[in-house]
Description:
The protein is α/β, with parallel strands linked by helices. It has one domain: 3-Layer(aba) Sandwich (Rossmann fold), CATH 3.40.50. Helix content is 43%, strand content 17%. The protein is globular.
Amino acid sequence: MSSYAFWNNKGGVGKSFLCFVAACEYAYRHPDTDVYVIDLCPQANVSETLFGGYRTSAEAIGSLNSKTPRATVAGYLEARLNSPFRMIDDVSPYLCAPKEFNPNIPENLRLVCGDNLLEIISEAIRQTSQLSIPIDAWKQVLTWVQDLTVALRKLSGDRDTLFVIDCNPSFAIYTQLALVAAEGVVVPFTADDSSRRAIENVVALLYGLSDPHTAAYARISFAKRAKEDGVPVPKLHTFVSNRMTMYEGEASKAFKAVNKTIKQTMDDIYRNHRHIFANPKESPSNTFIEIPDYHSACVVAATTGTPLHKLKPGPKKIAGERVQLNPEPLKRYGDALEQFVNCL
């Protein structure tokens, strides 16, 4: 696969940070590949991190918003609204190089920046998708971001490409555009029951697989219409147990108990619906990635825009406060994140 959407129907599970890690580490390891990050979350968290964190991101995002057209994902979607059923050949005005703002970022990583305008124009996008003429208006609108990936591949010429797409937790129209553009879905979660329910929502919303209480809505679901109209739907690729609580070098009993429940839920779905998984030959519980909680490292990386391969142990200054990164937990954290990146 060459395009991944990071999504869970629950917020606060670390998907934007994992997006940042995946994009930077993949670009660092594969210098001959163009890695494109498409930020389809109105909060633009992955864009902020790529631009160097809270100290430098506001100026960077402001400069992109002030351009004509806006050099952001919302600028691209505005252009599509002006001409809904014609592809844009030159998408370079909506693209930027985060390394120009943050020298820690690999040169072969490019960004279509997030934008809070995305939320404001979402209703216009939704209404355009509901037009009666042309008869395939919904399909054409839902593939706008997929069209963007096609145009970016052309920009890369003969170079390999990888797309990392950050999604909003909601199943808004712009989230649907993001998911249609992806081949695989990376589902980060934390060990709590709300995460389990959110993953069940991922399956229900994307594939129309739900319990009897919601079966009545299946006939008007995204999944049903996507199947009827031939709109591609991505496969479930990787489940990431993020921020795993550790005790004496092992996952805590509480984490193990909740994680076991989530694994069982996915295995139950897998038994009857293998076609929705990227690897239909292996139970999803066998491929879960577990990432230990190391809050200090995450804070340093996110607030300074420092990729994993440049994160070194020792004292750090964050907002005037001293933060210590110890070698052993940092290595354990880095090894787990490397295992995750290896899955892409």
